[in-house]
């Protein structure tokens, strides 16, 4: 199979969808790998490193898309990339379509088959291709929040861990999944007072064990969050409905309960955001203020640490890429139900029910682009 890897062109995105080791695994099996020139530079991977493992370096994205049967990316295709997709081609990347109706329509019109990393599941119903970037994003969320609490950055001017005789900051982590757990671990390590919220009692039990008494767990309800907001210096939103739009957990009205210049970090922003006042930002311009509260809503947080993130992502995706290449796309989707769950767009239609519901579109069988009544 001919597999193409273009450079990422989203603002402040430095990752690439494959490593030289991944190229070696594919070329040793007889597959051809095309890598756009300079695509790995942001992750400290040179063209020569890719070439040494059998990749063919091509000059631009047009060359990648025109030749590749399977296109590997990191982030959702940008407008100019959507125009390069074609019928019969397969795209394998993060899509996060729940809040991207225009992109969804573009992908449907392209005729390409689009498999989303974030909705692939394993045999236990977990999200193996979302997990590594969730781990990175969770850790970055706390680091970024701690930084934004500094006075010159518009924050309250409080040190997350305090010092002897001065209380530590209070951190609320809303969502106890992979993102939330990793955010809490970093906050614990920075010696903050940490409260993690979740609606699953079983998950809260698991977190109690993982945290070993170093953080509090709270059953997540509107009242429980409201009662804690006046104490919060940093709130990290880490809620997820696989494939669907993130639920709102803090409204604009509730911002009035918070301390002036407290910080909100919305890791759910790729799925529409979990705070009513969230809107996408970039690493170059990461924050804005609403009613005196700093918001950090960068849509590609792991892109800030591309060396770590590229290796972590490729380690997770490579077995699936190999399966797609070895079996062929149709056969791989037929035999691997977890991979099939990643199928978001095919034959001009939305295939994933949660994505369709979030977009107000019908799933396959009701006609491409049909609007739900």
Task: Report what the structure shows.
The protein has 373 residues and is an alpha/beta fold. It folds into 2 domains: 2-127 and 305-359, NAD(P)-binding Rossmann-like Domain (Rossmann fold, 3-Layer(aba) Sandwich), CATH 3.40.50.720; 134-299, Rossmann fold, CATH 3.40.50. The chain is 33% helix and 16% strand. It has an 8-stranded mixed beta sheet, sandwiched between helices. Strands 9-8-7-10-11-13-12 form a 7-stranded mixed beta sheet, with helices on both faces. Helix 6 (131-148) crosses helix 7 and helix 10 packs across helix 11 (329-335).
Compact overview of the structure:
With 373 residues, the chain is an alpha/beta fold. It has helices at residues 20-27, 47-52, 61-67, 79-82, 101-110, 131-148, 178-189, 201-211, 222-228, 306-327, 329-335, 337-340, 353-359; strands at residues 2-5, 32-36, 56-58, 70-72, 90-93, 113-116, 170-174, 193-198, 216-219, 234-237, 263-266, 287-290, 293-296, 343-346, 349-350.
**Which sequence of strands runs across the widest sheet?**
3-2-1-4-5-6-14-15
Strands, total number: 15
CATH class of the largest domain: Alpha Beta
Question: What is the name of the CATH topology of the largest domain?
Answer: Rossmann fold
Number of domains: 2
What descriptors fit this protein?
373 residues; alpha/beta; Rossmann fold; 2 domains; 13 helices; 15 strands; 33% helix; disordered C terminus
How do the strands and helices of this protein lay out in sequence?
Elements: E1 2-5, H1 20-27, E2 32-36, H2 47-52, E3 56-58, H3 61-67, E4 70-72, H4 79-82, E5 90-93, H5 101-110, E6 113-116, H6 131-148, E7 170-174, H7 178-189, E8 193-198, H8 201-211, E9 216-219, H9 222-228, E10 234-237, E11 263-266, E12 287-290, E13 293-296, H10 306-327, H11 329-335, H12 337-340, E14 343-346, E15 349-350, H13 353-359
Helix pairs in contact: 6-7, 10-11
């Amino acid at each position: 199979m001919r597999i193409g890897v273009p450079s990422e062109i989203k603002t402040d995105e430095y990752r690439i969808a494959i490593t030289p080791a991944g190229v070696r695994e594919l070329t040793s099996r007889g597959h051809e790998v095309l890598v756009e020139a300079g695509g790995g530079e942001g992750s400290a991977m040179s063209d020569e490193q890719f070439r040494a493992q059998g990749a063919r370096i091509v000059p631009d994205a047009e060359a990648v898309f025109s030749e590749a049967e399977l296109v590997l990316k990191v982030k959702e295709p940008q407008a100019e990339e959507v125009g390069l997709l074609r019928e019969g081609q397969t795209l394998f990347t993060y899509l996060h379509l729940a809040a991207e109706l225009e992109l969804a329509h573009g992908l449907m019109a392209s005729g390409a088959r689009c498999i989303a990393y974030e909705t692939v599941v394993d045999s236990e119903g977990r999200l193996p291709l979302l997990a590594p970037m969730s781990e990175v994003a969770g850790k970055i969320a706390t680091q970024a929040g701690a930084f934004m609490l500094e006075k010159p950055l518009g924050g309250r001017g409080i040190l997350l861990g305090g010092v002897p005789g001065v209380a530590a900051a209070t951190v609320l982590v809303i969502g106890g999944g992979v993102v939330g757990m990793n955010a809490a671990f970093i906050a614990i390590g920075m010696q903050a007072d940490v409260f993690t919220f979740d609606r699953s009692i079983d998950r809260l039990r698991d977190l109690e064990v993982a945290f070993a008494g170093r953080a509090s767990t709270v059953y997540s309800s509107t009242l429980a969050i409201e009662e804690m907001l006046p104490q919060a210096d940093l709130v990290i939103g880490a809620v997820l409905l696989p494939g669907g739009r993130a639920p709102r957990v803090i409204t604009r009205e509730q911002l009035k309960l918070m301390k002036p210049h407290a910080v909100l970090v919305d890791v759910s922003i790729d799925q529409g955001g979990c705070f009513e006042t969230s809107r996408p930002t970039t690493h170059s311009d990461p924050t804005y203020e609403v009613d005196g509260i700093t918001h950090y809503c960068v849509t590609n947080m792991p892109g800030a640490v591309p060396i770590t993130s590229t290796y972590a992502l490729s380690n997770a995706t490579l077995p699936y890429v190999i399966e797609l290449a070895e079996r062929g796309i149709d056969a791989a989707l037929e035999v691997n139900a977890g991979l099939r769950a990643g199928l978001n767009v095919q034959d001009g239609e939305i295939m994933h029910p949660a994505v369709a519901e979030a977009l107000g579109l019908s799933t396959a069988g009701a006609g491409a682009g049909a609007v739900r009544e």
